[in-house]
C-alpha cells in the first residue's frame, strides 16, 4: 500500500501529516508535531473532512518527567502535585493577606494594606503554582472552571476541599504567630458586612467576584487559542487590588469563601457567614455562564486551503 506525506502550515507552525499506512501506531496513523492546541485543531479539521484515506495520529513529546510516565502513576503524579499546589497557595494567600489587616498602632489597618497584600500574593502564587494547578486558591474560581467545562466535577470537588484545608492551615499559622487580640480584630474587620446590611453585602460580593470570574474565563479562552500572556499574573493581582478597593468598605471584599471559612472554623461562625458563600459563588456562576453563552468569542476558523507540499511516494 502506498503512502503519502504532506507538510501543512497552520498558524505559522509546520506539521507533518502522514496518510494511512505511513506512520507508527495502531492502524498506521501519521504523526503531527507542534503546539498541543494547534495539533488538536488540525486533528479535528482532518476528521471533519471525512477522508477515509487519512488517519492522523497525534504524537505528543513529554514535557517533563511526570508526563513521560504512563497509566495510573502519571495521573496520580499530576494530581497530587496540583492538589498540593492548591493547598500551599491558598494557605499563603490567607496567611499573608489576612496578616495585612492587623492593627497599626492600635488603629484598624487602612484599605491600602489588604489591597496591596492580597494583590501581591496573588501575583506570586500565580507565577509559582499556576503551572501545577492553575492557582485557583478560591472555590469561586474553581466553580467558574467547572461551569466553563475546564475542570471535571470530581477534581473540582477535590480542589475546593484542599482550598478550605489550606485556608484553615494558613489562618491557624497566623493565630500562632500573632496575639489573640490582633487575630480577633482581624476576624471582625475582615468577615463582617458593612453598614449596608447582609443582603446588599452579598450583592456586592457577587458583583466583585463576577468581575474576577470574567477575567478567568477570558484568560482561559486566550490560552485555549494559543495566546500566552506573560503578564497574566500581574493582571490578576491588579484586578484583586482594585476589587478590594472598590468593595472593601461595603462588604470587606472577601471574594473567596475559603478566606472567610478559615476564621469562622477557628473562631466561630457569624450569623451572616452565608454572605461570603452565596455572594461569591452566585456571582461567579452568573458571570461564567454569561461569558460562555453570550460574551465568548467564536473559535479560530481553520485554514480553508492549507498549503501542501507532497513528498516522494514510498511503496
From TrEMBL:
Organism of derivation: Danaus chrysippus (African queen)
GO cellular component, one term: plasma membrane
PROSITE patterns: MIP (PS00221)
Family: Belongs to the MIP/aquaporin (TC 1.A.8) family.
Keywords annotated in UniProt: Membrane, Transmembrane, Transmembrane helix, Transport
Compartments where located: Membrane
Name of the featured protein: (African queen) hypothetical protein
Gene Ontology molecular function: channel activity
Transmembrane segments: 79-99, 111-130, 151-177, 197-220, 232-253, 273-290
Topological category with respect to the lipid bilayer: Multi-pass membrane protein
Amino acid at each position: 500500500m502506498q503512502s503519502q506525506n504532506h507538510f501543512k502550515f497552520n498558524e505559522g507552525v509546520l506539521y507533518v501529516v502522514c496518510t494511512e499506512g505511513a506512520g507508527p501506531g495502531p492502524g498506521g496513523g501519521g504523526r503531527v508535531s507542534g503546539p498541543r492546541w494547534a495539533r488538536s485543531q488540525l486533528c479535528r479539521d482532518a476528521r471533519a473532512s471525512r477522508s477515509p484515506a487519512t488517519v492522523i495520529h497525534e504524537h505528543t513529546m513529554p514535557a517533563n518527567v511526570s508526563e513521560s510516565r504512563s497509566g495510573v502513576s502519571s495521573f496520580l503524579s499530576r494530581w497530587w502535585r496540583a492538589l498540593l499546589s492548591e493547598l500551599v497557595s491558598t494557605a499563603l494567600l490567607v496567611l499573608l493577606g489576612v496578616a495585612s489587616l492587623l492593627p497599626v498602632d492600635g488603629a484598624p489597618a487602612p484599605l491600602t494594606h489588604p489591597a496591596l497584600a492580597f494583590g501581591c500574593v496573588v501575583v506570586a502564587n500565580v507565577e509559582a503554582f499556576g503551572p501545577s494547578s492553575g492557582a485557583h486558591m478560591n472555590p469561586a474560581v474553581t466553580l467558574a472552571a467547572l461551569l466553563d467545562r475546564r475542570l471535571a466535577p470530581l477534581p473540582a470537588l477535590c480542589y475546593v476541599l484542599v482550598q478550605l484545608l489550606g485556608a484553615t492551615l494558613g489562618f491557624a499559622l497566623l493565630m500562632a504567630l500573632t496575639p489573640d487580640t490582633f487575630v480577633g480584630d482581624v476576624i471582625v474587620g475582615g468577615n463582617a458586612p458593612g453598614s449596608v446590611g447582609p443582603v446588599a453585602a452579598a450583592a456586592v460580593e457577587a458583583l466583585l467576584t463576577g468581575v474576577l470570574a470574567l477575567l478567568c474565563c477570558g484568560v482561559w479562552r486566550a490560552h485555549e487559542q494559543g495566546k500566552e500572556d506573560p503578564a497574566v499574573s500581574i493582571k490578576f493581582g491588579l484586578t484583586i487590588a482594585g476589587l478590594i478597593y472598590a468593595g472593601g468598605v461595603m462588604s470587606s471584599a472577601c471574594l473567596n469563601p475559603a478566606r472567610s471559612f478559615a476564621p469562622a472554623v477557628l473562631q466561630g461562625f457569624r450569623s451572616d457567614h452565608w454572605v461570603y458563600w452565596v455572594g461569591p459563588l452566585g456571582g461567579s456562576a452568573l458571570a461564567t455562564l454569561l461569558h460562555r453563552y453570550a460574551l465568548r468569542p467564536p473559535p479560530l476558523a481553520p485554514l480553508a486551503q492549507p498549503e501542501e507540499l507532497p513528498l516522494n511516494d514510498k511503496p
